[in-house]
C-alpha cells in the first residue's frame, strides 16, 4: 500500500512478492540513502511509513459498502467528499470539484461488451487511453479527456451485472495524486470481489502495519435515502430471506465459497424460507432453497422472524 501511496508502484498489489515490488522497494531505498537490497527490512518499512503517513492522513480512506450489493470499497473520505445516492449506487463529490467517484452496479450488463464500448466511446471523444486491461471477470481503463480530466475505471462481474467504480480528478485544481487513490481503491475492490482479506484502511502506514501517527479517518455516515444492507446474527436452523438484491436481479448460489466458483442456481430477490444449517466459511454461508444448495455471501441474507404463535387474546388490564 505504501509503495502505491509513494508513487513507486502503479499496479494493484498481489499476494506474491513480484519483481515490480522488488524494483519499487529498491528505488525507494536508493533515494533515501538506505541499502538498496530490494527487500522490505524494518528500516525501509519505518521510512516508508513516515514518508506516506501524511498522504494517508489527507486521504482518510474508509471502507464503504455498495448500498445494493454490499461489497466494500475504500473511499477517500478525508478529501471532504459528499455522498450522493444514485439509481445504481452512490456517488461522492468534492465541494471544490477536484475529485468525483461513482460506485455503481449495472444489472444486465456484460463485462466484455462494456469494456469495448467504453474504449470506443473514449477514443471517439478524443480521449487518451493510458492503459487498459481486460480479464475474464473484470477490466481496468485509465484515460485522460481532451479537457484534461483524468479517469480510472474498474468493473467486475457480479451476479447478472457488473459492479465497480469510476474516479475522475482534475489536476488543474490541485494535484491530488488521483491515480494513486484510484489504484488503492482498485486493490480494495479486487480483494472484496475475490473474497480476500484486505488491509484495514485505518492501519495503513507501512505495508498495512498500524502506525502511531495521525488520526483515524472520519466515520462514514450514509446520506438520507441510502439504506445499507442489514446485519443479523445467524444461527443454525434459521430461515433466511434475501436482502439488498435489485428487483431485476437474483442472488447467485455457488458451488464453492468463492466469487469465481460455478453458479449452481439462483434465488429470486424476494426469496424467503432459505434453510441455513450453520455451515460458514468466512463471509459465505451454505444454504438450501427449493432444490438448490450451495454458498451465498452473508451480506445478501438475513434471518426471518419466527412465525407468531397463536394464543388466547389478552383482556384489557392483563
Automatic annotation (TrEMBL):
Pfam name, any one: PG_binding_1
SUPFAM superfamilies to which the protein is assigned, alphabetical: PGBD-like
Membrane-spanning ranges: none
Ranges of compositional bias, category Pro residues: 213-227
InterPro entries hit by this protein: Peptidoglycan-bd-like (IPR002477), PGBD-like_sf (IPR036365), PGBDSf (IPR036366)
Region (Disordered): 206-233
Residue stretches making up the Peptidoglycan binding-like domain: 3-48
Name of the protein described by the UniProt record: Peptidoglycan binding-like domain-containing protein
Organism annotation: Methylobacterium haplocladii
